[in-house]
Design brief:
methyltransferase; Rossmann fold; about 25% helix; SAM-dependent_MTases_sf; transferase; methyltransferase activity; Methyltransferase
Length: about 180
């Protein structure tokens, strides 16, 4: 399941976290276009439908009209101007979301050539927690992990000890 050129550690840990909290008989709306991790989820027996590549800052219809019981959002909120709007529009009662964490020793990621591959936000864990709380979600479980590289240097060394990814399982607060 973790074969090929995938970032093995991130995909493996994300899948284990998802499997820990979400039953395979639940339906998942995965925010973002179909991607290599979508295939990992489907190959693992999850029922997954993706959004169609629409600009979710401008158009939340796919989220609002979804009957899925779970929404997943893996490394997407940092690409959106308004993650608040997206989180408020989710009808599902369960959310599994991950973000790349802000690194104190590295600048925010930006692409000068790809308008979709830009980070408008790089959260610290507490900022993401506050965003989820403000939009009506209660964090039930969370996990962090590092993302070491095989490069040589001071910053690559720091990546062995500094958490880079943060994942949460949250449930919608009932009023």
């Amino acid at each position: 399941m973790y074969e090929g050129k995938f970032p093995h550690k991130r995909y493996k840990l994300t899948y284990k976290f998802l499997e820990k909290h979400i039953s395979k008989n639940e339906s998942i709306l995965d925010l973002g276009v179909e991607n290599p991790f979508t295939k990992v989820m489907k190959n693992g027996g999850f029922s997954v439908k993706n959004t169609s590549g629409e600009d979710l800052d401008e158009n939340t219809e796919a989220i609002e009209n979804s009957e899925a019981t779970v929404v997943t959002a893996f490394e997407i909120f940092e690409h959106l101007l308004s993650p608040y709007t997206i989180l408020k529009s989710i009808k599902a009662d369960k959310l599994v979301a991950s973000i790349p964490m802000r690194l104190w020793f590295s600048s925010a990621y930006r692409s000068k050539t790809d308008k979709w591959d830009r980070h408008y936000h790089e959260f610290e864990d507490w900022q993401f927690d506050w965003l989820l709380e403000k939009t009506g979600w209660k964090i039930v479980d969370s996990q962090k992990w590092t993302n070491p590289t095989k490069k040589i240097g001071f910053r690559p060394l720091l990546r062995y000890f500094t958490n880079r990814y943060y994942i949460v399982y949250a449930e919608k607060v009932k009023h």
